[in-house]
Amino acid sequence: MPEYNLVDEPWLALRPLDGGPPVHLGIAETLTRAHEFDSLSVDFATQLPAVLRQVLLPVVVAALGAPATAAVQGERLARGGFSAQEGEDLLGYLAEHRARFELFDEVAPFAQVAGLRTVKDETKGAAALVATAASGNNVPLFASRSDADPLDLTPAQAAHWLLHTHCWDTAAIKTGVLGDDKAKAGKTTGNPTGPLGQLGVIVPMGRTLYETLQLNIPITAAANLGKPQWERPPGTPAWEQRPVEGLLDLWTWQARRVRLVPERDGSGGTKVTRVVISAGDRLAATPEWEPHTAWKFAPPTKKTPSRAPERRPRRHDQGKAAWRGLDALLAPVRQNDEGTFETSVLLDRIGALQEDGWLPADYPLRVETFGMVYGTQSAVVEDVVHDAIPLPLLALHGDSETRLFLLDVAEQAEQLARALNNLSADLRRAAGAEPIPWGKGQRPGELLLHVLDGLVRRVLAGARYAGGDEDLLERGRFAWEEAAAWRTWEHADALLAAAPATTFAGRTVTPAGKQGKAHAFSLGTAADSFSREVARILPRHAHTARTAVRDRFGALEDTAKPLSGAHVDA
Q1: CA torsion sign, 507 to 512 to 513 to 518?
Q2: Ranges of each domain in the chain
Q3: What is the pLDDT of residues 35-59, one digit of tens each?
Q4: What is the pLDDT of residues 385-425, one digit of tens each?
Q5: Which residues contact 430 (CB under 8 A, 6 or more apart)?
Q6: CATH code for residues 400-570
Q7: pTM, 2 dp
């Protein structure tokens, strides 16, 4: 078997702080030099939380322990990098467990099962590991290759996709293997997706990789850490459904049984062309202390009115920017029209660190969100959700002006989109057509949100530097409303200009069954209703506009009076 040990081999790509080309390092150097790099660089967005959770974070916590108090966490952050002693402890830990990080070991290959094989000793192409590659039922839209095309992976690529499979793999049927007594007719059914596929993953990012690591480690007592997979006995084909046994067990959860099949390439190097993937351990339930997700509370239903609200991981919405979910990101608990939400424990702790003085108010926190959209019984990957937004730390305080400001901005953007959709619907009714059905066709409000996206991100970044100054925040509110109004009316004017001539006269619409009040729709009523709605949503802009109109007419009256007097005298 070829040797490829993840402790030393340069399989991780890191972005230097000075913006130079990526540097490729093994686990040992990545951690001891973590303060020198901005972040990890990956080929596919959802690989980042997989590498963090399956390797870097558990190595740090297993070697150094998790912070037991907020003060310990704050001190680690303030240090800016691992101390000399911590560096020695990290290297010592990796040396002690070095054998378990060998990717192609014959006895205990990293995150795999040695000798894993089917009854007929069949293997699949390496594409079975790659979420973006056509393989079996998983055929991405516009894929440039088919299932029959070979896909060769370097050991570094194979390691990344191996971790990704444990975190995000599709559900449904998996290949049955020898030693799996739950397999029937060569298959194992009922498999869930990988653990991260059931979450809306939230990863706080710091100024350096070191700070990112510290921000992603929750305060945890030593008794609740458990063991990572490489400290457990080597994996076997058998799997079980069981509860999590601590934080390290959760992070390194082996959701699949995998064997990479390496071979030599033409230049004497190693490549992975074939794999075996079968069913792995199943989480009995996502633990309530899962750090990398926000939560929602499912209300009781008519069938179960006495049932207490159920707390579930909140998944990200496909096609929505992360700022459109600010309600769930800010403050411990938040309630809106869609339900009750709770932020991730990591963001909650970061807000507390700022309150305690360990982080400055203008700390450049970035929040990255990740999710997988599955289709057809979660057996195929339809889309990947990924976004990154700046997040002012003061917004994480439940009663701060910064938080209220940002929530208002996000809600105003949504309301403007709805107002534009209503304008479109009214104009279509005035022309004798029906509004664009929900979920069919592109509604103008979605286009407006796309245009407002850059504005909202600038507001998020600007709020960080305002530092809670109410005067600066008020100036920011005014600037936001002026810019949002301009862009909204730009879209509205396009709709009004495109309206057919028949909308001037309009028409009267009577509800089906002649029950209810008839409504008259015309170009004029639609424009008037929209104008009043925009004024309600953006009160500062409306006040400024009214003042400007009064001033202009007042100036005209002042100019007209002497002219009128001269005329009379004449």
Answers
A1: negative
A2: 12-283, 400-570
A3: 999 999 999 999 999 999 999 999 9
A4: 999 999 999 999 888 899 999 999 999 999 999 999 999 99
A5: 499, 502, 503, 506, 507, 521, 522, 523, 525, 526
A6: 1.10.132.100
A7: 0.89
